[in-house]
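Obj.: predict assembly geometry.
Materials: sequence records (below).
Method: joint structure prediction, all chains together.
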Amino acid sequence: MATKQHNQSDCQEYLQQISDYIDGDLRPELCAKLEKHMSGCTNCTVVVNTLKRTIELYQVEEDSTDLPEDAKKRLYSRLSLDDFLK
Amino acid sequence: MSMKQLSLDEQDLSLLRAQDREAFAGLVEATSSALYSLLLRILNDEQDAEDCLQETYIKVFAALPSFEGRSSLKTWLFRIATNEALMLIRKRKPQVQLTEIDREDDDLDAPVEIVDWCCIPEPELMNSETRKKLDEAIQHLSVGLRTAFLLRDIQGLSGEETAAIMDISVDNVKTRLLRARLKLREELSVYFGERLTHGNQTT
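Observations (raw structure tokens):
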């Protein structure tokens, strides 16, 4: 897939808003402007979609992270909570 | 693991304030995975994360009688853990901090890699190589950007809660979050772009 420079000045301005946009925190009128821009700008659409996906991937990874059993044992021992270890 | 399910009623809180061991064990059980994950990703070292986790709960236990409940218990725990981690980093390499703060004030970098990799199906996307890449990318962020991203996007705290934990304004949290997200997106786009180009979809 081709990669190209993404440097239009409009896009740079909208860049400030995309974090608020994906969080649903952008004011409705700004949201409408950004969506109108995106409907004609593939680059910004790709940036928004891959930005969302980036965050989702980190969240998927997080859900599979647990405190390892041996570290948990040492923690409970340090806290004198061994009798509560499940 | 995130701490979304942590809910404590008034009775739990009064037992915790009285340093009841069973209530404290329940708190550790409910929160230690999320705190460990946060510490591991801030510090990028399993031993440091484990040490910090232990220190965090020792401080938490000692401070429980004076917990006033002005912030939620969750925010309070994250604040103590985050401070422990940041203190350790300052001890580890005190010279890094200033340059990292400066870099956060630079102009926003425009996205360079415009590759639509959203089409890669998740089982292919989330292999062990991808997990390694995700960990690497997050370590390339400055501590300030990394911590904001971890608290907001990974642990699911609000902007206000993150601001309180990091002792910065809500606007500053937003700025850091935008920068962190864009940097991570850029790095992952280079990686997935290469995978798409070379058809390298190892599992």
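Conclusions so far: The helical segments of chain A are 9-15, 18-23, 28-39, 42-63, 69-78.
To do: check interface contacts against the pulldown list.
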